[in-house]
Amino acid sequence: MQRILSLASGGLCGGALFAIMVLTFFDVGGRKFLDSSIPGSLELTELLMVIVIFAGLPLVTARSEHVVFDSLDAYIPSSLRRVQQALVHVVCALAMLGLAWIMWQTGAQIAGYGETTAQLKINKGPFVQAIGVACLFTAFVHAWLVARPTPAGSNDGEEATPGAAT
């Protein structure tokens, strides 16, 4: 699962980030040397940022690379740490499922209204629904993290590096 997620999520994020880089390069170059920017470059950058952020969410979750508040972990017995992690993943999975449903419904409403971006007239609905799909995949990742065995003393399956900041 990790490999498929890395290829799909990482590839989508990397492609969108590369597109932002190319778009910005040509937009700035056009402004500097041709006195003309790319029409709608801000809108395209905003939509590509949506892809970067939400397509990366399942991968960040699977790798446990999100922000973690672990100041109290030293006081929790290791026997309870696995229960705590499972509970957190269950709550996050449920929250992501709820968010996925809301985003899917909102995207359908936006598409129904025909709401588009101001300059390029790109329909916003599919992007909002894509956020919902990304949240659904993130919920599945959280459910997978609950079910998978975690080595004792590790933080969600990731081996802690001595002296590393978390």
Structural key phrases:
166 residues, mainly alpha
Quick structural gist:
By secondary structure, the protein is mostly helical. The chain has 4 helices and no strands.
- What is the structural class? mainly alpha
Residues in helices, as a percent range: 55-70%
DSSP summary, beta strand count: 0
Mean pLDDT figure = 88
SS field, number of helical segments? 4
What is Rg? 20 Å
| Global outline | elongated
Low-confidence stretches: 156-166
The major pleated sheet works out as: none
Q: In total, how many domains does the architecture comprise? A: 1
Instruction: Return the string of H and E elements.
Output: HHHH
Question: How would you describe the overall organization of this protein?
Answer:
- This protein has 166 residues and is an all-alpha fold.
- It has one domain.
- The chain contains four helices and no strands.
- Helix 2 packs parallel to helix 4 and helix 3 runs antiparallel to helix 4.
- The radius of gyration is 20 Å and the shape is elongated.
List the helices and strands and how they pair.
Elements: H1 2-33, H2 41-62, H3 78-113, H4 125-147
